[in-house]
């Protein structure tokens, strides 16, 4: 394999729900969901059934034809959101690539091929994927350096900076792309006022507002999509990660008026919307979009925040706890800055899988249906790991009261 990853020392071989086992049959509690992907954990029986049933019927047919699973998925997503049209790809990067291309195409069609309306506004510390266009829109130079020349016309502003948005979004802007919660950038939620400002400025200047909900969507924040709780509706929304619960699929959702600018042949994907991926994703969306699951996300979120606050009262390792739903970040205090990878390794040694979001933030993105006993056990293990990092012997963690 190309050496673009630095994998952990263990190799997982089996998973069930929120627990994973390695080659030595050692058990771990998974608080990562494969980077916010396995929304219902590993090997969920209903999703296994959806996949295997479709596998016995039709795997792939190509976009010369359509298929029933993708038509069902498109209907389910558009009936559940602001959107009228869906385009399917294989990843979040591809969904964002489609969104950015569509925004440029809309400006081209509305204002002519010589238009100056090509500027795309993005934000520092954002992450939108690894294609050349999407990585250029991302606000982290470490991911784009060394791959130039990069696509032009992308301007990065400080996140949550209303004054900068008021100044820079203008008549030459064709799109603004933003994450409702910056995931890779440190688990930083956008303020409601900031997103409302973006909506207002896009409407004023005939620019498209693109919400990158690759990480926040499909129930992660306690709603089917994060925009639904923010009082701001985008023109384009992108989704992936949890959409297929681990089976690769991405989606771009938009209105009929905007979607009509993607005419036959202007964009496409060989595997996008194939029957296998679409069948699984359709079942995922059906399962997520229920009051029981979404209320459960909010309750589990409160439980995890309570656990982290309790741990911090004994360790003092966190400067700030933040996030939304089951996308939670714990920023390390000044004495432990730069040590997130070390803590990840220590946690793995204690049997709990966690993520980071840069060198200073621990990130937690467990399955939406993680059992409460797994939460309690995982954070007991994490506290032991934190004490190890501190260089002090762990005392028995105090029980954490959980909301009903």
Automatic annotation (TrEMBL):
GO terms for biological process: L-arginine biosynthetic process. GO terms for molecular function: diaminobutyrate-2-oxoglutarate transaminase activity; identical protein binding; N2-acetyl-L-ornithine:2-oxoglutarate 5-aminotransferase activity; pyridoxal phosphate binding. Keywords: Amino-acid biosynthesis, Aminotransferase, Arginine biosynthesis, Cytoplasm, Pyridoxal phosphate, Transferase. It catalyses: N(2)-acetyl-L-ornithine + 2-oxoglutarate = N-acetyl-L-glutamate 5-semialdehyde + L-glutamate. The modification N6-(pyridoxal phosphate)lysine is found at residue 241. Pyridoxal 5'-phosphate binds at residues 92-93, 127, 212-215, 270. Transmembrane segments: none annotated. InterPro entries: Ac/SucOrn_transaminase_bac (IPR017652), AcOrn/SuccOrn_fam (IPR004636), Aminotrans_3 (IPR005814), Aminotrans_3_PPA_site (IPR049704), Class-III_PLP-dep_AT (IPR050103), PyrdxlP-dep_Trfase (IPR015424), PyrdxlP-dep_Trfase_major (IPR015421), PyrdxlP-dep_Trfase_small (IPR015422). Pathway: Amine and polyamine biosynthesis; ectoine biosynthesis; L-ectoine from L-aspartate 4-semialdehyde: step 1/3; Amino-acid biosynthesis; L-arginine biosynthesis; N(2)-acetyl-L-ornithine from L-glutamate: step 4/4. Its EC number is 2.6.1.11. Its cofactor is pyridoxal 5'-phosphate. Binds 1 pyridoxal phosphate per subunit. N(2)-acetyl-L-ornithine binds at residues 130, 269. Pfam families: Aminotran_3. NCBIfam families: arg_catab_astC, argD, PRK01278.1, PRK05093.1. Homodimer. May also have succinyldiaminopimelate aminotransferase activity, thus carrying out the corresponding step in lysine biosynthesis. This is Acetylornithine aminotransferase.
């Amino acid at each position: 394999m190309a050496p673009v990853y630095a994998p952990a020392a263990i190799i997982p071989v089996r998973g069930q729900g929120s627990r994973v086992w390695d080659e030595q049959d050692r058990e771990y509690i998974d608080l990562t969901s494969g980077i916010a992907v396995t929304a219902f954990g590993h090997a969920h029986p209903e999703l296994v059934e959806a996949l295997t049933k479709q596998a016995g019927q039709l795997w792939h047919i190509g976009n010369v034809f359509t298929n029933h699973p993708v038509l069902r998925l498109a209907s389910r997503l558009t009936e559940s959101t602001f959107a009228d049209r869906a385009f399917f790809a294989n990843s979040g990067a591809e969904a964002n690539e489609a969104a950015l291309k569509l925004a440029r195409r809309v400006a081209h069609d509305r204002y002519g091929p010589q238009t100056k309306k090509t500027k795309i506004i993005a934000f520092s510390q954002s992450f939108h994927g690894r294609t050349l266009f999407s990585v250029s829109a991302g606000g982290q130079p470490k991911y784009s350096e060394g791959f130039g020349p990069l696509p032009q016309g992308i301007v990065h502003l400080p996140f949550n900076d209303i004054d900068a948005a008021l100044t820079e979004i203008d008549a030459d802007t064709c799109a603004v792309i933003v994450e409702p919660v910056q995931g890779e950038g440190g688990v930083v939620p956008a303020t409601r006022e900031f997103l409302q400002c973006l909506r207002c400025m896009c409407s004023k200047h005939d620019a498209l507002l693109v919400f990158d909900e690759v990480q926040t969507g499909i129930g992660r924040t306690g709603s089917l999509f994060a925009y639904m709780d923010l009082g701001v509706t985008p023109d384009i929304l992108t989704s992936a990660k949890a959409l297929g619960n681990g089976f690769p699929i991405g989606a771009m959702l938009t209105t009929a008026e905007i979607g009509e600018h993607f005419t036959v042949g202007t964009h496409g994907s060989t595997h996008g919307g194939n029957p296998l991926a679409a069948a699984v994703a359709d079942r995922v969306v059906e399962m997520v979009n229920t009051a029981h699951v979404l209320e459960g996300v909010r309750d589990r979120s409160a439980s995890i925040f309570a656990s982290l606050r309790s741990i911090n009262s004994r360790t003092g390792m966190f400067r700030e706890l933040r996030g939304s739903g089951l996308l939670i970040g714990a920023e390390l205090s000044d004495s432990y800055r730069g040590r997130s990878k070390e803590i990840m390794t220590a946690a793995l040694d204690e049997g709990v899988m966690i993520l980071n979001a840069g060198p200073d933030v621990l990130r937690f993105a467990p399955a939406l249906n993680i059992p409460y006993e797994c939460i309690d056990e995982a954070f007991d293990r994490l506290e032991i790991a934190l004490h190890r990092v501190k260089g002090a012997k762990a005392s028995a963690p105090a029980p954490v009261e959980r909301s009903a």
